[in-house]
Amino acid sequence: MTEFYRRAFADPRLGPVFVDVAQLDLPAHLPVICDFWQAVIFRAGTYRRNAFGVHAELHARVPLTPELFARWLELWTATVDDLHSGPHAERAKLQAHRIALSMGRRLADVPATSGTATPASSGAVTAAGRRRRPSEPD
To answer: Is the torsion defined by CA of 94, 70, 109, 39 positive or negative?
Structure first.
């Protein structure tokens, strides 16, 4: 995971999303994302959060386009291929492909704005991916 994020942060297309928009705190994020991928690859049941909601909130600030997902998948696949082999590596790549397609399809239904939006101005996103009404509690 560390190597993937090193590459993603340095990537001219993905880096600005991770660094400037998401302002990803990698030391805080790594345990969460490792739990996610352990659940995906090893069916570990370690991830108990809403991955879509996080991405929908980010998408409200900067459009997460099919091109960005394609680049993410390209970098993910290259990193896995460079560092790992075997059935778990193949599952990591297959599941990443499925997740990228699914996330991209779902986000296409969530309005994105250009520039920076705050939850107050754009409406927070519910776990189901729909915009929360201003009167609705978090």
So the answer is: positive
- Give the span between the Cα atoms of 97 and 76, in whole angstroms: 9
pTM of the model: 0.78
Residues 6+ apart with CB under 8 A from 124: 57, 131, 132, 138
Q: What does the block give as tokens for 11? A: 């990537």
Residue range 53-81, pLDDT digits in tens: 999 999 999 999 999 999 999 999 999 99
2-116 homologous superfamily: Globins (1.10.490.10)
CA dist 130 and 27 (Å) reads 29
Helix (H, G, I), strand (E, B) or coil at 110: coil
Sign of CA pseudo-dihedral 74, 79, 82, 87: negative
Instruction: Compute the distance between CA of residue 25 and CA of residue 28 in angstroms, rounded to an integer.
Output: 6
Tell me the domain boundaries of the chain: 2-116
